[in-house]
Write a structure and sequence with these properties.
This protein is mainly α. Helix content is about 50%, strand content about 5%. The protein has helices at about 5-10, 25-50, 55-75, 85-95, 100-110, 120-135, 140-150, 155-165, and strands at about 15-20, 75-80, 200. Strands 2-1-3 form a 3-stranded antiparallel beta sheet, with helices on one face. Helix 6 (about 120-135) packs across helix 7. It is extended, with a radius of gyration of 21 Å. Residues about 175-200 and about 200-205 have low confidence and may be disordered.
Length: about 210
């Protein structure tokens, strides 16, 4: 049996990829949220009063299903590919956490002593990872920084989470942004992406 060289292993390697779909139609997202709330109210009413012939639930469920299908159909897909380990580590090492981020971590750790320390300055790292890992789009670091600054927190988070996760285990995502304090990257993200926008790995390679 012929033994393969390191170069041959690397040449045949298929880097892990991860895809995320994002719908940038804010009006449609608002319609879905409003309809979800109406559906919750209707279901609570049925629990209290019983299901009658005039129940609104079936129609609301039908409308919600149609809107969610539109949300997914019109979403833009982004494909992210893992960097080599050395490059990923280099990006983190050259952008260490800021003193402000360390201070936020120290404050948060008072109520959660098991909180892992921040691995980098996520604000600086995010545009670099997005630009270098997103192979489906022609992003420069400057362009990715513009997206990072001008997209909503939820939209930007999905891009960064995908760029981070494709280089780590699928369950590890950085949590950041307004209202999230400084939950470190070694813990699971707290954001649940809307239906049709969850990142999905396309390869099990590392």
């Amino acid at each position: 049996m012929t033994k393969r060289t390191a170069e041959e292993v690397l040449a045949s390697r298929k880097p892990r990829q991860l895809r995320v779909r994002i719908n940038f139609d804010g009006d449609l997202a608002d319609q879905i949220e409003a309809l979800e709330e109406r559906l919750r109210v209707a279901r609570r009413r049925e629990l209290l009063e019983g299901e009658g012939l005039s129940s609104d639930v079936p129609e609301l469920e039908r409308q919600l299903s149609m809107l969610r299908a539109r949300l997914d159909e019109d979403a833009e897909e982004f494909t992210f590919q893992a960097l080599g380990r050395a490059r990923f580590k280099e990006i983190l090492a050259t952008h260490p956490p800021t003193e402000a981020q360390w201070e936020q971590h120290r404050e948060a750790a008072k109520s959660n002593p098991f909180l892992a320390a921040p691995e980098c300055d996520y604000e600086a790292v995010a545009p670099i990872l997005i630009a270098e890992c997103c192979i489906s789009h022609d992003f420069t670091v400057e362009g990715a920084a513009k997206l990072w600054d001008e997209l909503s927190d939820a939209e930007a988070s999905k891009l960064f989470e995908a760029a981070w996760a494709v280089n780590q285990k699928a369950s590890i995502r950085p949590t950041f942004g307004t209202g999230t304090d400084t939950t470190p990257s070694s813990g699971p993200g707290s954001t649940t992406p809307p239906s049709g926008e969850s990142p999905s790995a396309s390869s099990t390679g590392g």
